[in-house]
Design goal:
Elements (H helix, E strand, L loop, with lengths): L3 E7 L3 E7 L2 E7 L1 H11 L4 E8 L3 H8 L4 E7 L3 E6 L9 E6 L6 H4 L3 E7 L9 H9 L3 E5 L1 H4 E4 L2 E4 L5 H5 L4 E5 H8 L4 H9 L5 E6 L2 E6 L2 E6 L11 H12 L5 H15 L10 H11 L7
Length: 298
């Protein structure tokens, strides 16, 4: 009998070079990497659907060692990404790509049974409408990260571009995740609440918008602002991925506000350290109690 997952995370692994004011690091990245680790550490049964080079197979073994099932397709090249942060502002970064692992299709997710799915591409063309439509046909809750649709690859440069198909895609999406830079590019709205409402008008029932100070959760016409409280930004890459990965998992049994609090807390703790989230649930609970004036929500 096939396992039933709480959440599957769909998107390509990325081999990242991260350049910031504190120096240069080489990190195993990708939205699915950060998001799946966060959910797994919180006790959810999760899986990853991804594409990468056979020479990076060690990444799959490392993910599996954390209790995460992996369904990889091996390709001639992994996605090779450089993320440059010229300042300490995590919303300001320059992205370039020198290798592309290709497109995930509906056939890749077809065998899996899950309650929810998070679509986390690095740029447009990595995960198409066929995947989202097939998930919805199976009555699966779908969250989609807008970073993988507003970014378009030109040569080695990733540039923001208008996304004409956005209303068609979002009609099938339950939860939208975006940061404020991406949200403004897609909706034309500089105000965070107006941007959330613009996304919601296209069909999604919930919007998760991150910015350098925290996250806005917009659900059922109500907005919840939750701050980030990290002691450092050493692990800023993967911030939004961790946030939506946690939020979607927690929404399986919690309200939008409660899921938002957990997402904000886990993200705060994650950005203190390079790499995927790797803290204990007890640390998150203590952080929630201290920073959000809230007791355990488990």
């Amino acid at each position: 009998m096939k396992p039933l997952y709480d959440v599957i995370y769909v998107g390509n692994y990325t081999k990242d070079t991260i350049i910031s004011p504190t120096g240069t690091r080489y990190v195993d990245g990708g939205a699915v990497n950060y998001a799946s680790h966060a959910a797994a550490k919180l006790g959810f049964k999760v899986a990853v659907v991804t594409r990468l080079s056979k020479e990076d197979e060690r990444v799959i073994k490392e993910i599996e060692s954390c209790g995460i099932d992996c369904f990889p397709t091996y390709t001639p090249s992994s996605t090779l990404m450089q993320l440059e942060y010229p300042t300490t502002d995590p919303d300001h970064r320059i992205l370039t790509v020198r290798g592309d692992a290709g497109t995930i299709t509906a056939a890749d997710i077809e065998p899996l049974q899950t309650k929810a799915a998070v679509i986390g591409p690095s740029f447009r063309g990595e995960v198409g409408l066929d995947v989202i439509e097939r998930l919805k046909e199976k009555n699966i809750c779908v969250a989609a990260d807008m970073q993988g649709y507003v970014r378009v690859l030109h040569g080695i440069e990733l540039k923001f571009e208008k996304w004409n198909e956005m209303p068609v895609y979002l009609h099938h999406v339950d939860i939208v995740k975006s940061d404020m830079v991406e949200a403004e590019a897609l909706t034309g709205e500089k105000n965070i609440l107006n941007a959330a409402r613009a996304f919601a008008a296209m069909g999604p029932r919930e919007i998760v918008l991150t910015h350098k100070e925290g996250v806005l959760v917009y659900a059922d016409g109500k907005a919840y602002e939750l701050g980030f409280y990290p002691t450092s930004l050493e692990g800023r890459s993967g911030r939004g991925d961790t946030c939506i990965g946690t939020y979607t998992a927690m929404r399986l049994n919690k309200s939008p506000l409660e899921a938002g609090i957990w997402a904000a807390a886990v993200t705060s703790l994650k950005v203190e350290r390079v790499g995927p989230f790797n803290r204990e649930i007890s640390e998150v609970e203590a952080f929630i109690h201290e920073k959000y004036n809230h007791g355990s929500l488990r």
